[in-house]
Amino acid sequence: MAKSNSLQKKSLVVRALDGIEHAGNALPSPATLFLVLTIAVMIISAICAKLGVSVTYETIDTANGNAIVETTVSAVNLLSVEAIRDLITKIVTNFTSFFALGTVFTIILGVSVADGSGMLSALLRKAATSAPRSLVTAMVVFLGIMSNIASSTGYVVLVPLGAILFMAFGRHPIAGLAAAFAGVSGGWSANLLIGTNDPMFAGMSTQAANMLDPNYVVSPLCNWFFMFASTFVITAIGTFVTDKIVEPRLGKYEGAIEGESNDLTAAEKRGLKFAGIAALIYIALILIAVVPTNGLLRSATGGFLSSPFMSGIIFIMMLLFLIPGIAFGVGAGTIHNDKDVVDLMTKGISGLSGFMVLIFFAAQFTNFFTYSNLGTILSVAGANFLESVGFVGLPLIIALILLTAIINLFIAVDSAKWAIMAPVFVPMFMRLGMSPELTQAAYRIGDSCTNIIAPTMPFFVLTVAFFQKYNKKAGIGTVVSTMLPYSLGFLLGWIVLFIIWYVLGLPLGPGSPMFYPA
């Protein structure tokens, strides 16, 4: 009877997961989704304009002695002749001026060289294989988190390496797979450094915030302090779940221990030495330019937050990947001349072709939504309603985290979700006194936690294949049941950390406040 109940429960879980996968796959591609949403905005704007929908709100005029100004905004009919003529002339500039476009492309130039030269893979393998037995789980989770600065590198390199490393210590390989996958995917919004996603999210948040405050700029470093602390929290939770829940449940591995080697070659060791020396020299030069108050990259008044260093952080981070990446390639023999460097950059940029298509349609949706004034109307009406029912502050933020975690099961592309959600939630929460940086941090928590149990996530199928290497009967249900403790643990732990951060009113990043003067 117990076995029958167990099979029944398992079938219910599998059916639920199959339903999620089917629903997610039934959705159009993200680019098509934005096209549909743009058309929907045009139709809704016409209806709202005909009905005379408008909102009135108060703003503070800082240029006029902080005088309170009452502003009324009405819906704009995007199907009117005037609007259509105006919108057509802005299609190209909507795309080229989309904030996330330039920042992502800039940093990917450096990351593509560091990755393509083999440096990132060698670093991950060197760190993982150097870990003592007592720290192997924590090291695998931590490296998984750190690998997300280079987008998909962790999925391809570290996840299978986690299994091999665990086998080398006589442990279950699937536990190693799970620990690595949890770090790479579940820890997507934690890191000690900024990666390719940070400027992308900041760009979308900036454009959303500009609906309310045209001069507001969200820095790519806006969540860095919180991400930095999150790295250690997620590492600790991932280690505990692996050692105390996942691996004991798996039992002893009965399969053959494979003799795969991930030792570094002599060329790779030489490359890492070159990269280390280059990185140290580069960091020393940056410190010389930043630390002194009269340094080259400090502001004219000696300030730091408004300095050229902070304004040019994306380019500086790009060089942090590019220079050691070239040095590694020269030392390891994977880069012979300038053409090789350009080829690696070209290959990295070509990998963003899907991102460019997505951004084209996302940019149109964002700008059409702003032009229609529907975003302002929705944010004002929504903020007034939430304030009237008392659903504000921390409970509201936690609700956003949970909502994002649920949506992530169906729409796994993080940039697509934020491009849809940011124009609504960023200005709405700003009116309730919460900064765009705070709203973005809450979104990223929810987005990360359910990555590892979302069948629609692009690398989920690859992870199922890795599982099947060590368990021929493994399927979607196997992976999700293994990863669910991580997902719940990360969600709970991250919310607790967020509550502490919120209560203490700590800055989320350099010059990134928790609250916004509503």
3D architecture notes:
The relative contact order is 0.15. The protein has a two-stranded antiparallel ribbon with strand order 1-2. The chain has one domain. With 518 residues, it is mostly helical. The radius of gyration is 24 Å and the shape is globular. About 1% of the residues have low confidence. Pfam families: ABG_transport. Keywords: Membrane, Transmembrane, Transmembrane helix. This is AbgT family transporter.
Provide a compact summary of the structure.
This protein has helices at residues 2-26, 30-51, 81-89, 91-96, 99-116, 119-129, 136-147, 153-168, 173-186, 197-209, 224-250, 266-290, 308-311, 313-332, 338-350, 353-372, 374-388, 393-407, 414-431, 436-449, 460-470, 476-504; strands at residues 54-61, 67-74.
**Structural class by secondary-structure content:** mainly alpha
Lateral arrangement of strands in the main beta sheet: 1-2
What's the main sheet like?
2 strands, antiparallel
Run of helices and strands: HHEEHHHHHHHHHHHHHHHHHHHH
Mean pLDDT: 84
Number of strands: 2
Percentage of β-strand residues: under 5%
- How many distinct helices? 22
Give the end-to-end Cα distance, rounded to a whole number of Å. 59 Å
Radius of gyration: 24 Å
Shape category: globular
Our count of domains comes out at 1
Low-confidence stretches: 6-10
Q: Helical content, roughly? A: 55-70%
Question: Which terms summarize this structure?
Answer:
two-stranded antiparallel ribbon; single chain; 69% helix; 518 residues; mainly alpha; 22 helices
